[in-house]
Specification:
Strand order of the largest sheet: 4-5-3-6-2-7-8-1-9
Distance between the termini: 5 Å
Number of strands: 9
Number of helices: 11
Strand content: 15-25%
Radius of gyration: 17 Å
Helix content: 25-40%
Structural class: alpha/beta
Length: 248
């Protein structure tokens, strides 16, 4: 199952700007816009795909490489779940290139890394947001050993706590081929969604990404394809234009 989304950001420096300014929450800014509707479609398709699993409470979003749109997709889908009345927790599990704190305009002093090092408890670093029903845990300070921390017993305990307190937990995870962080997270999640940047993601990289995830016994729920809108179709004011296509 694939969900195809169009996104265009004219003049956008994708490799740096999301970290500095966060991603655009079109689902919050204009929930009736066609762009927001596409994210709701993605949410629904994830739910359909997850219906075949025993549980689909912890959903991880990843990609093959950096700057492919995983943070945009994960944050906006998390918002749509919250708007549907679910109690949602968005966790920034990308400890190397975090964006959640910038997106939700908060500090990144404490977060996942301070919980995993024993400095804080999960409830101490959980923050409510301007979106009803949506809470976040930012990444915390960038550590020297992200993979080891994510593979720790404390990460498992953090997600156990999240399962007990939230309906849906969304993980914004690092790219699969860049680091080994995702592989160690897979056993702690229920399903994985891969974000693909059409025209940028190499076919070989996508195939390798799927192979790596399968070797880790990941339950791949599907992919979100990010493709350029037609010339002149700017859509949303920030340069968003989305189209939907369901493919086998």
């Amino acid at each position: 199952m694939k969900w195809s989304l169009d996104r265009i950001l004219p003049g956008h420096k994708e490799d740096k700007e999301p970290q500095k300014n966060g991603v655009m929450l079109v689902t919050f800014a204009e929930p009736k816009h066609v762009v927001a509707e596409q994210f709701r479609t993605v949410r629904t398709n994830i739910e359909f795909a997850g219906a075949a699993l025993d549980t689909c409470q912890v959903v991880m979003f990843t990609s093959s490489a950096v700057s492919e749109g995983k943070s945009t997709v994960s944050a906006n889908v998390a918002v749509t779940w919250a708007q549907a009345g679910k109690k949602v927790l968005l966790i920034d599990a990308d400890l190397r290139r975090p964006t959640v704190h910038a997106t939700f305009r908060t500090l990144n002093i404490d977060g996942v890394t301070t919980v995993l090092t024993g400095k804080n408890k999960a409830d101490e670093v959980t923050e409510t947001t301007f979106v009803d029903n949506l809470s976040i845990i930012t990444s915390g300070p960038v550590p020297p050993n992200p993979s080891e921390l994510l593979n720790s017993k404390r990460m498992g305990l953090l997600l156990d706590w999240a399962r007990d307190n939230y309906d849906i937990i969304v993980l914004d995870a690092p790219p699969v081929l860049a680091v080994s962080d995702v592989q160690v997270l897979v056993p702690k999640t229920d399903g994985v969604v891969v974000v693909v940047n059409m025209g940028k993601t190499l076919k070989a990289d996508l195939q390798r990404t799927v192979e790596v995830l399968k070797l880790a016994n990941a339950k791949i729920l599907g992919s979100v394809e990010r493709v350029k809108a037609k010339h002149g179709d700017r859509g949303y004011g920030y340069g968003y234009g989305y189209g939907y296509q369901d493919q086998k």
